[in-house]
Amino acid sequence: MLLYILRRLLNVVVMLLVVATITFGIFFLVPLLQHTDPVMRYIGKNANPVAIAGIKVKLGLDKPVYEQFWLYLKGLVVGRDYANGNDVIHCPAPCFGISTQTQTPVWPTLLHDVTVTGSLAAGAAVLWLVFGVGTGVVSALRKRTAIDRVAMVTALAGVSLPVYFTGLAASALFVYNLGWLQPTNPDVTFTSDPGAWFQGMLLPWITLAFLFAATYARLTRATMLDVLGEDYIRTARAKGLPERTVIGKHAMRSTLTPIMTVFGMDLGGLLGGAILTENVFNLHGLGFDALNGITKNDLPMIMGVTLFAAFFIVMANLIVDLLYAVVDPRVRLA
Amino acid sequence: MTDSQTSTTETTVGGTAPTSFLSVRDLRCHFPTDDGVVKSVDGISFELERGKTLGIVGESGSGKSVTSLSIMGLHRNVGKKNGPRMSGEIWLDGQELIGAGREEVRKLRGQKMAMIFQDPLTAMHPYYTVGQQIIEGYRQHNPQANKKAARDHAIQLLDRVGIPQPDKRVDQHPHEFSGGMRQRAMIAMALANNPSLLIADEPTTALDVTVQAQILDLIRDLQQEFGSSVIIITHDLGVVAELADDILVMYGGKCVEKGPADKIFSEPEHPYTWGLLGSMPRIDRELQERLVPVQGNPPSLINLPNGCAFHPRCPYADRTEGLSKTEVPRLTSVGQDHLAACHLPLEVRQQIFTEEIAPRL
């Protein structure tokens, strides 16, 4: 088991190395091939040949590509100083590079913004698990009744409607028409004002949860119906167990296993940034950074978010696999 | 002990409690589907005394399993829209089950009546240990038993059904058991509360032949030890040959023949039973002939053939003067405690049997 975990962790490192290589390739090599100079993105209005040459040296862009890549990887592990004589930007490990917008290291921004994304994802996850799985179970148990049909049509709507529609519609209704909620203020944090933070997060949570709850309701319903047809459910009934034990224990345990897998992957993916939701509600999370980086051509920022997101997905994968072995005794990890 | 303990006379529906331990009267179980009503069980009656064994025999889709699930009250959504329609009476030890509340029947399940299922791999929950699954059923009906006592009981049961190292096996999951061991564990689970009625639905079908005999021996031993009544459901007359006191042959949801086991084997009165016997391999068969299959396929339970449901497959249907194509034959007495539903005149039937069938058996 320990050996398995170690092997998988090594796997994670390799995966991240691959992702780092590919992003590096795309974002640093492609501009070079297109003969657009990445230095121009840093320099701004004060461009003159001396300043350009200085920045080139400072960022290491004067070095060969393989050396740049090596410095980039090294910076991720031990940190890095971007220096041209006395002009030094210290970038501690893990160094994801210098943002072209702020001229400061990317990592502190990522670290701060992942908490925003994290709280968005966690709150939404609680909501979609409770309502999605709950709806799915009720739908399965009340198959082909009015409740089931209403739930499944709602779920279809949830899957089909994009966040930039539901989010904006919800904002328009609850914030601007009814005035029940204040617009989300990205500067309010949980520690600065918990009440305002909570009410600001409410709509983002619900919007994001609606999308996922819909998928989970459909998945839960389908899985539950499959499980209810299993022989061992009949055996549980034949033992004289009350229906709540048959459903709540025997059927739920089997139903939750595939849901756990999907949940792990979804949460891992979300932690890399909920681009649409964050931008609709002006939340400065990783998804916001990603879009911001793309629109402002901030390559180190985009690389940072990509690598960060990859890390979460690969880790989520590992955790799901480990949990699977705990939940299903037939699975042996080796 | 007299023969009347295994009475198989035709029973009529009435509201009064019968004297026998299990009495099924005119049981019907119909499933509405998009294509029509599936009459899985259409008027089955039988009696079973304490400590006796009844074998229900028939092809796939003849209604055997539906009958047993009806007794256990395991049909879902009975009487609801799209749910099965059930009628008739099932009396278990003086209590009527079809009209009884779901909660009442649930309390009897696993306690007074228990069931062994066909495929022990799919019939056990893959995520729980064998011990947990036995204990769960035991404590459901014995809430006063503490965990230690329940666990000891489970180990005892596993030991009794012949599982080696029961104190270790109790903590293993079903997938760690072999097929035969799994079925033994399934039997242990069914016996957890010492049920007076044990229904075994094709208990050996999923097992290989050598294990089949062991499991059947085990069921017989346990029956003698616990004094339970047993219903064995099978498509294989060989399975019930040694175990059953009485045999009920089902075809198309109806009973076509029933009677004491030795009568069914020595003097079968229905062409379908002849077919079943002819297609059964026997060690004591003298002639080295090929087995004779019953021609054709089981009928659709939505559109049963008119008249006798067996007539399209019956080689002797033309000797009934057309009756078998138009009229449903009634179960009529053909000997002591022996009934058969066939239009062939008794003399003709016995003549066919002695001249054509018996020499081949």
Short description:
Chain B: GO terms for molecular function: ATP binding; ATP hydrolysis activity. The complex is a heterodimer of chains A (334) and B (361). Chain A has 334 residues and is mostly helical.
Key attributes of the depicted protein:
heterodimer, A: 334 residues, mainly alpha, MetI-like fold, 2 domains, two-stranded antiparallel ribbon, 13 helices, B: 361 residues, alpha/beta, Rossmann fold, 8-stranded mixed sheet, 4-stranded antiparallel sheet, 12 helices, 31% helix, globular, transmembrane helix (chain A), ABC transporter permease (chain A), BPD_transp_1_N (chain A), MetI-like_sf (chain A), MetI-like (chain A)
The CATH topology of the largest domain in chain A: MetI-like fold
Strand content of chain B: 15-25%
- What is the name of the CATH architecture of the largest domain in chain B? 3-Layer(aba) Sandwich
Number of helices in the DSSP assignment of chain B: 12
Low-pLDDT residue spans of chain B = 1-11
Count of extended strands of chain B: 12
**Approximate shape of chain B:** globular
| C-alpha termini separation of chain B | 31 Å
Structural class of chain A: mainly alpha
The CATH topology label of the largest domain in chain B is Rossmann fold
